[in-house]
Amino acid sequence: MSLPQTPPLKRLSRVCTAVLASVLLAAPAVAFDLDSDAPITVNAAHARLDDSQGVATYTGDVVVAQQGTRLSADKVVLYRDDQGLSRIEATGTPARYSQTTAGQTAATEASAERIIYNATESQLTFERNAMIEQSGNLFRGSRILYDTRNRVVTAEGDNGGNGEGRVEMVIQPRGRAQSDSN
Q1: Paired strand residues for 89
Q2: Per-10-residue mean pLDDT, the chain, length 182
Q3: What residues does 138 pair with on adjacent strands?
Q4: What is its main location (predicted)?
Q5: How much is the pTM?
Q6: Fold of 8-180
């Protein structure tokens, strides 16, 4: 009796996801650490705080930073609930996200037209022209979801009617990635 074979494309997709997770996410990423004693700072040209709704809107060359994590965008909206900061939404052309983690030799750089950090779900979402890069390794798609708690990446291509939704991944040879980090 033979076991059912996994279709080659599905098998390749699993391998690519595993390789991507190990290449891009070698160090644990926590996005903004809301349990940290380090403050989150926000700089912008304009700010509007609606305390009754728990919403702060920043516009004009916005930079949100905490230790090694930085988010820059045209507009950033911060949402608070009873537990504190719960969600960050950034839009830009593109919005940019950068993170360096202790012990990590190269920063993780990402960009998209919309970046959402959902603290409750420990999830980063990059939408529209999404790209994540580290040490020359690249992951690009229409939408990339990153579960920061479980370190799981899911990417989707753009299926905007043409049926050619694709995800692109570039993985550098081991020697290249190591020599780039020195």
Answers
A1: 77, 116
A2: 47 44 47 78 96 95 92 96 91 93 75 93 91 84 86 74 66 62 48
A3: 133, 170
A4: periplasm
A5: 0.76
A6: lipopolysaccharide transport protein A fold (2.60.450)
